[in-house]
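Batch queue: ligand-bound targets. Current item pairs a single chain with flavin-adenine dinucleotide. No template structures supplied; prediction is de novo from sequence plus SMILES. Inputs echoed for audit trail.
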Amino acid sequence: MPGPWRAFGDRILTTDTLFEQTDLPRRIAVIGMGAIGAEIAQALARLGLEVAGSDAVEGLSGIDDPQVLAAFRPLIGADVALHLGAQAELAAAGDAIRVTGADGSFDADVVLAAIGRKPNLDGLMLDTLGVPLDDKGMPDIDPATLRLGDLPVFLAGDANGHRPLLHEAADEGHIAERMAAPDGGGAGLCRRTPLSIAVASPQVARVGPPLSALDHAAIVTGTVDFSKQARAHGAVGRGCPCVSTPIATTGGFWPPNCACPRPNIWRTCWLSRWTSA
Ligand SMILES: Cc1cc2nc3c(=O)[nH]c(=O)nc-3n(C[C@H](O)[C@H](O)[C@H](O)COP(=O)(O)OP(=O)(O)OC[C@H]3O[C@@H](n4cnc5c(N)ncnc54)[C@H](O)[C@@H]3O)c2cc1C
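Prediction returned. Tokens below.
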């Protein structure tokens, strides 16, 4: 959290302290519209709060497919006043905190800093292990074995910062347990295809690597527009231009980015996760 924000004391919440609150303010600004910030902002708006969401970049929920982002933005914008594309500045304004971002400002009772979550390695004394640590105190771990060098130490889940997602943490717990077992070891276990889901409405997901990491000369992109699809309308409860962009590559089939109305579509993506690994 930027140092000057601390002057606002307990009126600056984090994605940990938010869940300790016994009541909610009337107006809240959410700074950081990644997957966690966007889903919390929308949820709070649907609980009846006046919510603004700011981000330094013109992005939402980690979406890197411009078509999916274009479809998703007005949907979340119907609940949350979006200020995307400029660093948010905080200033006192009477009893409120004035949050100035792209396209104006918003007076909030409370600000949620949905930024900068980092692995909690405090107290583990990793500096005593004799392995190099980077400037954030993070050791280098083998992504296949999750092992620190040749030590009998493994870092799994959010602690290693690689894939801070629930299902990935579960997989990593399994990998670390197998590698640490007396009959374990070796080169490590094959990772499943990366999958991330933001539990917004509609849900947003990526299966496989981000679009930006793919070789655009080797892929073709297809789009499915759900805006006139009756079940999508029924599922989301309003006219919803949901988009999915399957991508075919010479190496297989990837459906990497989707804003989808209901879990039945996830069954397709989940299946792809297993078959494309
Ligand atoms: C607001 C929010 C929303 C999220 N939404 C999603 C989502 O929609 N989808 C998704 O996939 N993921 C989501 N995540 C991420 C997901 O919750 C984490 O990736 C997942 O919980 C990581 O599991 P973990 O076991 O690595 O860590 P944790 O669940 O944090 O568990 C770590 C445990 O270790 C204990 N511990 C810590 N230090 C020590 C120590 N020194 N000694 C002993 N015990 C210790 C802690 O008390 C804790 O019980 C969200 C996270 C947040 C905060």
